[in-house]
Design a protein that fits this description.
The chain has 264 residues and is mainly alpha-helical. It has twelve helices and three strands; from the N terminus they run E-E-E-H-H-H-H-H-H-H-H-H-H-H-H. The protein has a three-stranded antiparallel β-sheet with strand order 1-2-3. The radius of gyration is 22 Å and the shape is globular. The N and C termini lie far apart (75 Å).
C-alpha cells in the first residue's frame, strides 16, 4: 500500500556550486558586510531583515543575555571543558543545556504570560484589570510570576529601565510593556514586598512588542548565551578555574563525610 509523502521544503537556504542563498538573500553579495549578527538572527527567526528600529531593540535584547558571571551554565561549560578540552562545542552545549525556567529561559515564561493575556495587541483591553487577574491567579496557585523579582538586583534590575527606554525610543511603547509594568506593581502590592521586573521579564515584554512568538523567545537567550560561553571557555584556556572549583568542592564534601570540616 502506497502512502503520499509530504514534500520536503525549506525557506531557510540552499547552496549550488556558485551560490549560497539564505532566506532568499545571496549570502556573499547581499548579507556579508551588510548585516550584523543580531540582524542575521532576526532574519533567520522572522524571515526578513529587521527595520532599523527593530534592529536596535533586538540587538539590545541579545546583548543583555550574553553574560551574567559565573552562573550554573557558565560553570557547566568550564567544568566540561576541563574534562574534554578537545571539544569546545561540547562545553558550550553543556552550558546551553542549563538554560531553562530559572536562568534565561524565563523570557519564554514572561512572554507567554503577556501574549496569552493580550492575544491581539491592537485590542489589549483593560490593562489594570488584566494585571489584577494575572497576579491573583498566580498568587492563588502559590506560583512564582515569570519575569518578576530578582535575588540580587533590587529594588530595580538596572537592565530593565534601559531596555524599556530603548523600546520606547524605537517606537515600541505598546501594551505588553505597559502590562508588564502593571503586573509588577500589582505583585508588589499583593505580595507585600519589592518585586522588580527582571531582565528576562523586560525581554519577554520587548519580544512581544516585536511580534516574536513566546515559543521562540528562549532561542534569543540561547544564541546570546552561546557567545558568552565561548568567552568563558576562552578565559578558561588562559586562566583556568574549573579544576580549582572541582577540587575544592570535592575536598569539602570529603571533609564533611569524614567529620573533619569546620563551619567557621
Amino acid at each position: 500500500m502506497s502512502s503520499k509523502r509530504k514534500p520536503i521544503r525549506t525557506a531557510m537556504g540552499y547552496s549550488t556550486p556558485d551560490r549560497i542563498v539564505v532566506r532568499g538573500f545571496d549570502l556573499p553579495g547581499e548579507l556579508l558586510g551588510h548585516i550584523n549578527l543580531g540582524d542575521m538572527a532576526f532574519l533567520e527567526m522572522m524571515g526578513r531583515i529587521p527595520t532599523s528600529q527593530e534592529s536596535v531593540l533586538f540587538n539590545a535584547l541579545a546583548v543583555t543575555l550574553v553574560e551574567h558571571g559565573l552562573t550554573p551554565s557558565a560553570l557547566a561549560a568550564r567544568l566540561t571543558y576541563a574534562g574534554a578540552p578537545e571539544s569546545i562545542q561540547g562545553a558550550v552545549a553543556a552550558g546551553l543545556g542549563g538554560l531553562g525556567t530559572v536562568f534565561v529561559g524565563t523570557t519564554e515564561g514572561s512572554a507567554k504570560l503577556l501574549q496569552e493575556a493580550i492575544p491581539d495587541p491592537k485590542n489589549p483591553g483593560d490593562l489594570d484589570a488584566l494585571s489584577q487577574k494575572i497576579v491573583a491567579d498566580w498568587h492563588a496557585r502559590k506560583a512564582i510570576l515569570p519575569g518578576i523579582g530578582h535575588p540580587l538586583h533590587k529594588p530595580i534590575d538596572p537592565r530593565t529601565p534601559r531596555l524599556f527606554a530603548i523600546a520606547r525610543e524605537q517606537g515600541f511603547d505598546g501594551p505588553y510593556i505597559a502590562l508588564m509594568e502593571r503586573v509588577a506593581a500589582e505583585a508588589a502590592r499583593v505580595y507585600g514586598k519589592v518585586l522588580p521586573i527582571n531582565a528576562t521579564g523586560a525581554i519577554g515584554a520587548c519580544c512581544s512588542e516585536l511580534g516574536i512568538a513566546w515559543t521562540a523567545c528562549r532561542g534569543i537567550g540561547v544564541l546570546a548565551r552561546a557567545v558568552g560561553l565561548v568567552g568563558h571557555i576562552m578565559e578558561e584556556m588562559h586562566s583556568p578555574i574549573a579544576r580549582e572549583i572541582w577540587t575544592r568542592a570535592e575536598d569539602e564534601a570529603r571533609d564533611h563525610a569524614l567529620g573533619t570540616h569546620s563551619d567557621s
